[in-house]
Amino acid sequence: MARKTNPKLIDSHVHSDDSRLSDDFPAVMARARAAGVIGQVIPAVTREHWPRIKEYVAKHKDLYACYGLHPCFMAQHQAEDLQTLPLWLGKERPVAVGECGLDYSLADVNKSEQQTFFGAQLAMAREFRLPIVVHAHRAVEDVIRLIKASGHNRGMVHSFNGSLQQAHRLIDLGFMMSFGGAATYERATKLRAVFEALPLDSILLETDAPDQPDATHAKQRNEPAYLFDVWEALSELRIETANKVAKTTTTNAKRLFGI
Q1: Domain annotation for the chain: domains and CATH numbers
Q2: Quick check: helix, strand or coil at residue 7?
Q3: Are 252 and 204 in contact (CB under 8 A)?
Q4: CA-based nearest residue to 101, from 59, 150, 63
Q5: What is the pLDDT of residue 46?
Q6: Which of 159, 166, 153 is nearest to 180 (CA)?
Q7: What pLDDT score was predicted for residue 6?
Q8: With CB atoms 3.0 to 4.6 Å apart as the test, which of 48, 102, 201, 204 could cross-link to 178 if both were Cys?
């Protein structure tokens, strides 16, 4: 595939504040911008990360904050975090609530506790009229159930790995699906078929850096510049041109996050 020029891409889910990117952060940012990444949406995973993300977005106009409590870090969360989070949402005006959701792949998972935290954050997102960034691993059905119960109809499911039928149910609830490096591997046949079949106006692109590298950078540290490679590889699956995929997914991200 011929290398495209001058895409304008938004990384809809990237942990740019992660310590694994901090040693060469200026170079990471320079490479991302050179690759056409015009915006990066940074979701928090714990309360401890909120001030750090605030600092990053204050220094870089192309970084956008989300504040939330991730289901994989339940051991680090406290009940009072759910009281503090609305204060941050009201004062800091992030572009979304998250990262939050459900992950049933963990050892000794407490599903009830995860659901309580996710339900509370769905309610906050609705109250503050913000989109919500959802993590759903082996838990898509319960994610759909809780979203439906919340009445909140604006958000994204990042690194989507559910079925096409589940994706359409989420679209009906006002949600978009985000795809990253996992979908660039040829062995991911079911995931790639979902990406190919969904309406383009329901799709976002992401890296989830420094995790989940694309096939070109397998087993390497991921970084936001590699969104170019995600876009290039996944565009091959669509009937639209690669430039159309870039333009539409960027428009989708701008519309969802208000950026």
Answers
A1: 9-257 (3.20.20.140)
A2: coil
A3: yes
A4: 150
A5: 98
A6: 159
A7: 82
A8: 204
